[in-house]
Amino acid sequence: MDYQNILESIYKQILPFAKEGKPADYIPALAAVNPDRFGMCINTIDGGEFAIEQSDVRFSIQSISKVFALAMALSLKGEEVWKRVGREPSGTAFNSLVQLEIEHGLPRNPFINAGAMVILDMLLTSLDNPEEEFLNFVRKLSASDTISYNTVVSRSERETGYLNAAIANMLKYHKNLDCEVERVLQFYFMICSIEMSCKELARAFLAFANHKNHFEYAGVSLTSSQVKRMNAVMQTCGFYDEAGEFSYLVGLPGKSGVGGGIAAIYPSRYSVAVWSPRLNSKGNSVMGIKALELLTTETEESIF
Amino acid sequence: MDYQNILESIYKQILPFAKEGKPADYIPALAAVNPDRFGMCINTIDGGEFAIEQSDVRFSIQSISKVFALAMALSLKGEEVWKRVGREPSGTAFNSLVQLEIEHGLPRNPFINAGAMVILDMLLTSLDNPEEEFLNFVRKLSASDTISYNTVVSRSERETGYLNAAIANMLKYHKNLDCEVERVLQFYFMICSIEMSCKELARAFLAFANHKNHFEYAGVSLTSSQVKRMNAVMQTCGFYDEAGEFSYLVGLPGKSGVGGGIAAIYPSRYSVAVWSPRLNSKGNSVMGIKALELLTTETEESIF
Amino acid sequence: MDYQNILESIYKQILPFAKEGKPADYIPALAAVNPDRFGMCINTIDGGEFAIEQSDVRFSIQSISKVFALAMALSLKGEEVWKRVGREPSGTAFNSLVQLEIEHGLPRNPFINAGAMVILDMLLTSLDNPEEEFLNFVRKLSASDTISYNTVVSRSERETGYLNAAIANMLKYHKNLDCEVERVLQFYFMICSIEMSCKELARAFLAFANHKNHFEYAGVSLTSSQVKRMNAVMQTCGFYDEAGEFSYLVGLPGKSGVGGGIAAIYPSRYSVAVWSPRLNSKGNSVMGIKALELLTTETEESIF
Amino acid sequence: MDYQNILESIYKQILPFAKEGKPADYIPALAAVNPDRFGMCINTIDGGEFAIEQSDVRFSIQSISKVFALAMALSLKGEEVWKRVGREPSGTAFNSLVQLEIEHGLPRNPFINAGAMVILDMLLTSLDNPEEEFLNFVRKLSASDTISYNTVVSRSERETGYLNAAIANMLKYHKNLDCEVERVLQFYFMICSIEMSCKELARAFLAFANHKNHFEYAGVSLTSSQVKRMNAVMQTCGFYDEAGEFSYLVGLPGKSGVGGGIAAIYPSRYSVAVWSPRLNSKGNSVMGIKALELLTTETEESIF
């Protein structure tokens, strides 16, 4: 498959949508990002790397980091993880606190904010230096030593993060957090502030595409079955209230972030990362989703 | 792959769970089914058929028929279908009417009852003899001319189907039904009453596994892309509030019915149907899910 | 107190609001009512009657009839009534079906549609000729033999009453209706179609104002304590999602109807009925509420 | 009316219920209260005081203090108060955060926790020394200079008050708090920690019973109409999800607290305070409600 050519063809086809959507602007650091940036990179399991445009520019990966958090928790706790968080799609648009109140503090899945906080609470009680070990894992996964947290972003998010603070307090009220609310929130905003390029993201996700290879990075170790099951969770829960839509249009497991990044996987073939800051009303990158839809259409490769 | 051997090995492994769960008993006809029945059949795209136990015994396929209804609607209406029904998982356990009220009569997907009713309303306004044409399509799809509705079941369901009547009235109130409430309910309970064996179901679903083959049965015609997308919808929405769980454990698109049947697909490889009447608390067949989990584990074949 | 003078003064003060709001038009019979009609009538417990404008013109009392239904049920069943219906305000605007689903078919109070249906179900199983006996009770209560059902209205409502049909089916599903859904709906729309004038309504409600007098009309008999408690239910639940607002502005127990009528009570003093078809966004008569607010302000009489 | 005799008769009649219910124990200070305490005191507008049992013993008035907060806010802001908080009953049992999320941060009324926080936010932005001025107002109202905050209670509540922290954060997220979350929570728990005896509470509430007297205490000034309207709000919203029940059984406006206290008003006649720590499942004092029900039954005085 001539992925380089396909990427270039895709880019031409999505240019008409370049001004659609609105970048996240709830904190200054995100509002300051140039909304016209675009990057896309494919990593194949046989070692190929294909990239276009600003695939070396780092951006705030935001919720994509929840995938890394889940990997660490599964490595540490195994199936026990699912005692404190579900793996069902969150469904309805009136999500978060309503669901949490009705289901007594058990988040629907590890990719909604509430679920990610519970996962991070597990890491906080299991690891000696959670922030350091988390970053180290991400660096090893993407083979890039300079990936870092952006503490301007994380602090800024904490200061205005009232909804997330409400969620964390609800979890604590329902006894689904062991650590203090403030500690969990800090860690949460910290991991969301990690900055990576499309190339780094694609490399990091290649490990999830290649389940036949043993997954072992910085002490985080997953079985082939665990890797497959993480893909299953990404498939049904990776795009908030647009998981079905993404599955329908693209047909690959993946995870999006409010910074405009999307990482996805074609199991046993490739990983792909795409970045464009303008978001649709559901909080997913407009050009990113378009690009991935074209990718599976042009290659005729989807899991279905 | 020696599927026959695998099926026999699976059967031995799931026998310990043979008495778990409780069959549907909300109408006499379902309560009268022998709960100890079991069947399982695989059809491969290269023409193989592998079956064990009572794979020739017909049972009430119930909600599995919603897949056939969606196929007909897509053939007739194309993407227009999605103007009146979503394709997102229904999510939360407090389902159906709450979601319908809050989202003003737009059902989340075509596999929840509300969504199926909207799909059937489309068929009713497009077809001359809806019941006849529907049955004809299913017969052609499974290459079996004797498949029939069970009108004892459908009438019995209509008489006690107050929740479904509430749903249909809500849809009508929100102007998402063109036909009369009663007409839609009749058709709904009719298609749910179809009886098929595991062998017939597996054959019918093979068409969805084999998207490279042109899908054309009794005038119902789908493109390769439409077949793939139907699989995507089954993946995220095929198991009500257990879609994530099924995706996690089994990793195949599929659809379950309250009669204890499950049909699933490994795209480009095989279709599989399994039947065991005892259900878990979410309304899915206990042994059926176990059997499919073992199938993807033993064959190491899943879409992820 | 010179009520006649007060009524005339009120009328002048509310004239500026004469064109505010929108009359109910969901059925032809209601849409055909002249929206500029207005009537208001006070009956004092010492026998006075004070009326202005079109207080002799009959209109569709709609939900006001739920008060009469509750009186009959309390007379027949006493406190047992509260086993099948609550007496708490319905609260949130996303009412009816959501509440019913979450609270498993137990309606919040007898004045929301679901609650009234349960009350009517009780009457249907207890009375030989429910429609006849209900009408007879209302006639005796208002000392007017010509009060009647409007079957054009009731049939028209039944034909388009999908939301109410959904509610009745939900109640039946939760086993909170003994009679058939259709029978309950018929009776429900029948009692809502009763037509009365302001004079007749005021007279009918006087019995609820005068709890020291024995309540006994056409075999419907209530103790002093039961009459008081009916007032309490009207106070907290008589105005759907505007009960608090009405209590705040007017301070009297009462009940409104979508036909633009409101009946209210000053215990031990008077009853009052007002009618003006234009409704606010909550479904209550704009001029009616204004008029009652002015009444308690001008007379300085409220229960608080 | 021989209130002293009536109180003594009531006490005898409620003794059989002395062990029913369970006192609040979510913080040590409340769990340490002797659950067998009981006090009841009536103050008539003509100057009488009638008390039985431990009517001089102070207890944590908790949510009853929300009435005082509303009085201060109305005095400072008038009708503007209602732009940021509703006056409708909260209704459904699935309360607080669900309602707040769906209605975008506008609390249903000033007596649910969310509403009280918004009221306190108004005081915080208007007063120089909010804690001092609030306490001063309560002292003047009850003519008792030694009433105080219990900072052991308030600190203890803050430490475990995760649900309230979630609520405050939701309000802040929806921009319905001007002050910092933490500041509002502190003030909230502070006013809830006030300790008063039944005698002091009855005296404080007498001002709300006597609307013909000018309401003016420590600079807090309300018109007769404002006092009446506060009673209306207490009537429909004073008992959380049991407002209808209390209205039905007792028929007086009032406010309960989780410390087991209830204060109520018979407008133009008397105020009454009762205290017994054991609570029913809705969080209201078992003996307290029984005692008030008997009071209105025996005196045949209720607002209806």
Description:
Chain A is an alpha+beta fold. The first copy, chain A, has two domains: 3-60 and 195-299, Beta-lactamase (3-Layer(aba) Sandwich); 63-192, 3-Layer(aba) Sandwich (Beta-lactamase). Chain A is built from 13 helices and nine strands. Chain A has helices at residues 3-14, 28-31, 65-77, 97-102, 113-126, 130-142, 151-160, 162-173, 181-192, 198-209, 224-237, 243-249, 286-299; strands at residues 39-44, 49-53, 59-60, 195-196, 215-217, 220-222, 254-256, 261-266, 270-275. The first copy, chain A, has a five-stranded antiparallel beta sheet with strand order 2-1-9-8-7. In chain A, a hairpin with a 4-residue loop joins strand 7 (254-256) and strand 8 (261-266). The longest helix of chain A is centred in the middle third of the chain and has 14 residues, at 113-126. The radius of gyration of chain A is 18 Å and the shape is globular. The two termini of chain A are 18 Å apart. The interface between A and B is large, with 38 and 38 residues.
